[in-house]
Write a structure and sequence with these properties.
The structure is a homodimer of 402-residue chains.
Chain A lengths: L31 E5 L14 H5 L9 H8 L3 E6 L33 H8 L5 E5 L6 H7 L2 E4 L20 E5 L2 H11 L11 E5 H6 L2 H18 L1 E5 L6 H27 L2 E3 H11 L3 H21 L4 E6 L12 H21 L3 E7 L5 E7 L5 H18 L4
Parallel strand pairs in A: 1-2, 1-3, 6-7, 6-9
Antiparallel strand pairs in A: 3-5, 4-5, 4-10, 9-11, 10-11
């Protein structure tokens, strides 16, 4: 087992740079991957980023099925990776264990909660890594660390053997540095999806682009043009006529209420040590009323209808994954809270409606990573992976910045 | 320096079984004491029960004046003692460092937040110990561990060099096993108080006794009769006609709002690791409205008037210090929260109005400690210490249980 002290990224869980060899040859033979510490790897404590969690839960005897599927198709594990505490974070901070490094921007946060998985892939320590995405936890670190990252269609990949945050929104996704590897993982985990036809129409999310920082809008312009060439007819329209902030508010009520409901017994009996910010988020979650949850559910229902209407077969939507590049480290909570809410405004449309979203890495003129996202109809995940490959091929040919 | 591993009570702060010798001979020569980890002892980090507190504050260069006063009058320090995190607790729990043992009832909590100070005195490791009492943090552990303990008149002993919780309620007090030592410490720390006349009238707080568990009421009956002999004419009447719970509610709003105001900048910039329960209390504190604080201030003003009317010169009030003996350890937060509120109903009358209160140790038939409290008028602290001595003498003569 490699020495933990060699983890200069602070991205692996201490004592869990475990090597678990592939079970047999397969589509992923030769590839190595890392596993976010919310997913069970047999024989290793699942820590969920909080020391009291591993202390109060048994060491798993079995791999999570999604982990087994990868091992059975030829890939090997090189370690378990850090997560924001109980996955309740989007920036990659962890008060117990510190913050994994963002290899592409060391003075900035890596994004979370799948922070360690993004960090080790960005640093080239393995070929791909598993993360989870409930409210943005794959998409955001993918954007901040310059990686391909997918939030699959909700419910498509089983969530057994994984620490749940909010079942109505939990998904398991992955990161990779290149579109081909990214797509190969999909060929294993999304086997059940039929061959999908190519997209014909690109909707540029006018509201989401308007919400992003001007520098991000400008930098993504050429990426959108390339995407247009890959996809077809372009229209510009808002995706959330009611307001991205209204959808985000509903998502916050629903997602955090589910998270609190799932954790409340553990909190009551174990009184865990947590970062103040995490405890505060949980207590706020506990205070939403039935009335607020009811209103949020109505908003969700309308949002799902809107997305279904927008995402006719053959349509994809593009938007900035995050409204800005990764924030600088070590800012006060009062600043970070507002940044977090802004980020969630762009991750909510797919999260609230359950459709798949893929981050395509791009960068600012100074090289800092940002991301262009594509969202497709329910179960169009493999189409999104194919578009990512086509996009990468087009930009490589043109020598474009990515 | 004694070996920390010998701290079988888990009552000393790790690495702080410091020995600080008396500066000169004096009234306390030959006595040793311990210091709660909210008070500065020069050269030792003040930890306030939270690792992130000591990490983010400089090591004090000077003793707190109350510590200096004791060293200058002949007493020597044997160590710094555990506190509930940031003094925000009444039971003696600390998620970072564990719970000091209650030497008189090892299966029960020691009480807090001056938990370590009560523990080491009860175990006989030193003659007395300093604690702080904002909402009951000396009185409650004194009751639970079977010690004399005082919350002095608010403002009488300076609070410089001590981590403040809520300035309008913060006091520094002390514990001792016997009334004579208890009083000797007062002769140093309460020097400025003039000689005080003896009490003439005892008010038995009918509401507070009614609020206590029946077993506590019964056990305290003989103690009250002894006190009556020491003091004089007895009347039984409620001290809080509006309701002990109403006063307690007001105290909670006012005290915790001050605590949050004092800590909010630290929370925002340091995002400390805390027990979930402590973070929850702080967030709740942050949510009180100006309207709620205004209403609570009106209740406080009436309570102060009521106490002033009740505590005519020469009058003392007696009541159970806590409504029950120390709770068993390891109960869920939902249970502990209600116990905490019940305890606060009895500590609030003196805390809200600023008058002094002394716990006189007593016990249940099975030997479990409980406490009888005496409350006197503003600045009657030395009278209360004298009554405690007279009470102890009377019970020793009669061979009564204490």
């Amino acid at each position: 087992m490699p020495d933990d002290r060699q983890d200069s990224l602070n991205a692996f869980v201490r004592g869990q740079r475990c090597l678990v060899a592939a079970i047999r040859e397969g589509a992923l033979s030769g590839l190595t991957f890392a596993v976010k510490d919310l997913l069970d790897v047999a024989g290793y404590a699942t820590g969920a980023g909080n020391p009291d969690w591993s202390r109060t839960h048994p060491v798993p005897a079995q791999h999570a099925p999604v982990v087994s599927a990868l091992l059975e198709d030829g890939a090997s594990i090189i370690g378990k990776t850090m997560t924001d505490e109980i996955s309740l974070g989007i920036l990659g901070e962890n008060g117990h264990f510190g913050m994994p490094m963002n290899p592409r921007a060391p003075d900035r946060v890596p994004g979370g909660s799948s922070s360690g998985s993004a960090s080790v892939v960005a640093a080239g320590l393995c070929d791909f890594a598993l993360g989870t995405d409930t409210g943005g936890s794959v998409r955001v670190p993918a954007s901040f660390c310059g990686l391909y990252g997918i939030r699959p269609t909700h419910g498509l990949i089983g969530f057994e053997g994984i620490v749940s945050q909010a079942p109505s929104y939990d998904t398991v996704g992955w990161f990779a540095r290149d579109a081909r590897t990214f797509s190969r993982v999909g060929s294993v985990l999304l086997k059940e999806l039929a061959e999908q036809r190519a997209p014909r129409r690109l909707v540029v999310a006018a509201d989401a682009f308007g919400f992003a920082e001007k520098g991000v809008q400008d930098a993504l312009e050429s990426a959108v043009r390339t995407l247009e060439h890959c996809v077809g007819a372009r229209t510009d329209e808002p995706i959330a006529p009611a307001g991205l902030n209204v959808w985000q508010g509903a998502q916050r009520v629903l997602q955090s209420s589910e998270a609190y409901a799932g954790l409340s017994r553990w909190l009551d009996t174990c009184n865990p040590l947590m970062s103040y910010s995490v405890a505060r988020a949980l207590l706020r979650a506990s205070q939403f009323t039935d009335e607020e949850r009811g209103r949020a559910a109505l908003i969700r229902q309308e949002a799902m209808g809107r997305m279904r209407h927008l995402l006719q077969p053959g349509t994809i939507v593009c938007l900035p994954t995050t409204p800005f590049a990764a924030p600088l480290k070590d800012q006060p909570l009062s600043t970070l809270g507002y940044l977090r809410d802004q980020i969630s405004c762009l991750t909510t449309p797919a999260g609230l409606s359950g459709v798949p979203q893929v981050n395509i890495p791009w960068s600012m003129p100074d090289g800092t990573p940002i991301g262009l996202s594509i969202i497709g109809p329910w179960r169009s995940d493999r189409m999104l992976l194919t578009i990512a490959e086509a996009f990468e091929a087009a930009t490589s040919k043109n020598g474009q910045r990515k």
